[in-house]
Amino acid sequence: TAWTMAKRLADGPPLATRFTKHAINRAIEHQLAINWELADALQVLTTLTDDTVEARRATAEKRPPRYTGR
Predict the structure, then answer these.
(1) Are 68 and 54 contacting, i.e. CB atoms less than 8 angstroms apart?
(2) What percent of the chain has pLDDT over 90?
(3) Would you put residue 69 in left (φ > 0), alpha (ψ -120 to 50) or beta?
(4) CA proximity to 19, closest of 67, 69, 63, 65
(5) How far apart are CA 26 and CA 36, in angstroms?
(6) pTM over 0.85
């Protein structure tokens, strides 16, 4: 349902969600090919965040992640 999806997004990593939203908004405004490059660059940035480290730790420890937006 929409509520389930909204809850999942709200509980997710804030920076990744923000970057994804930014990439989607840019795709609406500009050519798709250019935005794939942007999405790729933002994905690389996302992998360098503390939230990514926390997500991996939480998965390994079988617990819910505690995202900080960093």
Answers:
(1) yes
(2) 36
(3) left
(4) 69
(5) 10
(6) no
CB atoms within 10 A of CB 7: 11
- Is the pLDDT at 66 greater than 80? The verdict is yes
DSSP notation for 2-70: HHHHHHHHHTS-HHHHHHHHHHHHHHHHS-HHHHHHHHHHHHHHHHTSHHHHHHHHHHHTTS-------
Residue 63 has a pLDDT of 97
Query: What is the per-residue burial (b if ≥16 Cβ within 10 Å, else e) of 39-67?
Result: beebeeebeebebbebbeeeeeeeeebeb
Q: Count of residues for the chain?
A: 70
